[in-house]
Amino acid sequence: MTSATAGSHRRPRALALTDDLVARVSRSVPDTGLPASYSDMSVLTEDDKLALAERLLRENSGAEFWVFGYGSLIWKPAFDYVEARRVVAHGWHRDFSLLVHSWRGTEEQPGLMLALKRGGSCTGVAYRMSSDDPKGQMLRFVRREVDYHEDAPTIRWITVRDGNETFRALTSWVAVRGEPGFSSPVDRRTGSDDCTGGRSLRQLR
């Protein structure tokens, strides 16, 4: 038996993340409602969301309705689907660059959540929606993802690949160049950048 073969039978390492370690970084912050930075944002009405859903459907030109998940949608899609495929989105990569000032962050210490940014590639899951009631399904997706006019441009169609087959899929929180809600690239070693005051991602809740 070669050393390489022998190495493949090593016991898996014990999980290093413990309840004690989680407790050291856990931080409870009172919910004081939406921060002041949201005051100049325009809320989408139900008519606005319906108009957005109809526009996105027109952009798909009657093709099958696919949704691309690259973060929480992978393990918690929160919608019904008829098929799921492991796919790659070339020309896009996932990045902790979406600034969050509520829920997972505060005005003083913003949080960072996943977004899609230009460059590289990203492996995720494509979900095919049922052909029944496409407008209703699109409207549910829009309601789930965005609440403000300023966030609507982050929903867009991208091209994904499954082997030799390519098709378009809808995804959300795609970084728009110059969009104020997105940070500069996060330092891969410390998980910090200027937008978080140099704090580590481990300090962000």
Structure description:
By secondary structure, this protein is of the alpha+beta class. It has helices spanning 3-7, 19-25, 46-59, 72-75, 134-145; strands at residues 66-69, 83-100, 111-128, 156-162, 165-171. Residues 1-8 and 185-205 have low confidence and may be disordered.
Note the topology.
Elements (H helix, E strand, L loop, with lengths): L2 H5 L11 H7 L20 H14 L6 E4 L2 H4 L7 E18 L10 E18 L5 H12 L10 E7 L2 E7 L34
Antiparallel strand pairs: 1-3, 2-3, 4-5
Descriptive terms for the model:
205 residues, disordered C terminus, 3-stranded antiparallel β-sheet, disordered N terminus, alpha+beta, globular, two-stranded antiparallel ribbon
Give a quick rundown of the structure.
Helix content is 20%, strand content 26%.
The CATH homologous superfamily of one domain corresponds to Gamma-glutamyl cyclotransferase-like
User: Mean pLDDT, rounded to whole units?
Assistant: 80
Shape assignment: globular
Q: Roughly what percent helix?
A: 10-25%
Distance between the termini: 48 Å
* Structural class based on helices, strands and sheet pairing: alpha+beta
Low-pLDDT regions: 1-8, 185-205
Task: Count the E strands.
Answer: 5
Order of helices and strands: HHHEHEEHEE
CATH topology-level name of one domain: Hypothetical upf0131 protein ytfp
By CATH, the architecture of one domain is named: Roll
Helix tally equals 5
Given this structure, which CATH class of one domain is correct?
Alpha Beta
State which percent range the strand residues make up. 25-35%
Largest sheet entry: 3 strands, antiparallel
Strand order of the largest sheet: 1-3-2
Radius of gyration: 20 Å
